[in-house]
Amino acid sequence: MKINFIDKSLIPIWEKIQNSERLSFEDGIKLFQTNDLISLGKMANWYSFTKSGDSVYFVLNRKIEHTNICVLSCKFCDFAKKKGEPGAYEMTTEEILSKLSDEIQEVHITGAMPPDWNWERYIDIVKSIHSKFPKIDIKAYTAVEIDFFHKKFKIPVENILLELKDAGLKTLPGGGAEIFSERVRRLLFNQKIGEKRWLEIHKIAHRLGIPSNATMLYGHIETVEERVSHLVKLRKAQDESGGFLSFIPLAFQPGETGIKPKEDFTSAIDDLKTIAVSRLMLDNIPHIKAYWVMLTEEVAAVALNFGADDIDGTVGEEHIAHDAGAISPMKLAKEQIIRIIKEAGKVAVERDVFYNPIKIYGNKIIGKIPYLNSIPIYHNLKIEGYKTVTLFPSQLGKMIANGDISAGLISLVDYFKNKDKLKISKWCVSSRNKVQSVILFSKFSWENLHKKRIGISEETSTSVLLLKILLLKKYNVKADFEIFNPSLKNYSEYDAILLIGDNALRELYNPKKDFSYTYDLSEEWYSWQGLPFVFAVWVEKQNFTDEIIVDDIIIKQNIDKNLSNIGNIISYYKSTISLSDDKLIEYIKGFKYEINEEENLAINKFQNLLEEINVCLKV
Ligand code: SF4
Q1: Ligand 1 centre from 78 Cα, in Å?
Q2: Can you give the pLDDT at residue 485?
Q3: Is a pLDDT exceeding 60 seen at residue 13?
Q4: pTM over 0.85
Q5: Count of structural domains, the chain
Q6: Residue 196 C-alpha to ligand 1 middle, in angstroms?
């Protein structure tokens, strides 16, 4: 993409971004210092598109702040009260339940730290919500609260998190990180945990299979250097544990804190810069949220073209920011959120707490898989009047089956399940012999995997079923399967793990000492059947007019052009895979993209084997 930079010093940074090179601390400072806001926004918007396409996520959520009574007295806080002080409140579990309903997807629970609650009361909140509303995703208790529970109730952090997870907790909120600066901590929140403990608690949560979010409170007394340092530290933590789902810059609300004059909110320019710089610096965090409660609806709407791909949700009721003078409304209706997203030229995607799509609002949408192996089809694939959403294959399959997406590559098994609603074209992603991106890492050989625990990702059903067929029909072995989240990198908890897509490719060249065996499932299939394996096929939604959305010729021209120019375009996509360009090019050239006779035979063979092992291919 061409950007006409007014600030030419941004050009080397833009080159780095386009070459998937990580930005340095100095680059972050330069981005904050530039006055070329439009160029900054264009870079961040482009980068956001490479991750999420045109999607902007939102959730039907409810914020619960169970109490404002706090043993601490942070200087920047206008929310906390002491027990007995006017305005102090505590909610009972019944009061909390009364604020929820079956329409809500996510409840976000954070509060102050009262002196006299017992551990059972916190657990009871989560358990009771989970039991009365099992479909609601529970995101509860910041790292600051978890540390408080640990100190007050003398329970190890691991046990606290495991008990909460057992009770129904799905993720941790990102609050309490404030700004990772010991100087600011001493001045504004010296009784609260600092960066080391906050990061440690999130790291433990990720190891235990609990993803989380991260925040940064800005616009008070912090320096630009402290903001960039916060981002760099968070990026390093994500490299290690991988469990941060989203990053939320929180604009400081001065209120009566006395830290700044009451009306001295952060400027829209500062808010947009912070969103954009966060998107560009945090190359390994999937989502950046424009939290409209603190930004205002108007600034959040603009932020959707400055790198944000999430606008939070309907919220319901919010006190922490509003007690400090936030001027945004208390809640937004779903229709308002969808309108804001559409007006920003994006596609509204209703999500759950893990960013799984629930519904996509729009009618001309191409679905895109975020794996390197589909670049030859998708790179520069522009269909007039259509937007793009990026989703994992199984998510895409579900959305195409729902009728939410018009066309795209979907997992072969999802095609089998929805044949009556879809038209298949002649394009696919298939491999002959080794594929390098569908790998079983195992502590045991195939024969010894009987009754062993295999972690499988939900990203695509086809590779999981290929694994099951190989185990049952080729090796006569029955293993136990458990869904796991590969981003959390807690691989060693399992006897074997199936990694798919770029995760598999990344780990293949980064040998895992826990696993003695590395099996390429496509190679296993080929040595058994002598056929290629078809992982995904290009499909279009059946429609009344029988109109073809993407012409075969357009896809063919795109594939040919991209494969002949793969050396140049690979840099846009290599992202966090630290493989040489040559290795990546060799990897992509190993795929076939056209369905020919052998691919058809392979598709039929796989379908027959699925029926033999009694996999239901009807929905
Ligand atoms: S910021 Fe949190 S911990 Fe600090 S006083 Fe307010 S409620 Fe208590």
Answers
A1: 9
A2: 85
A3: yes
A4: yes
A5: 2
A6: 18
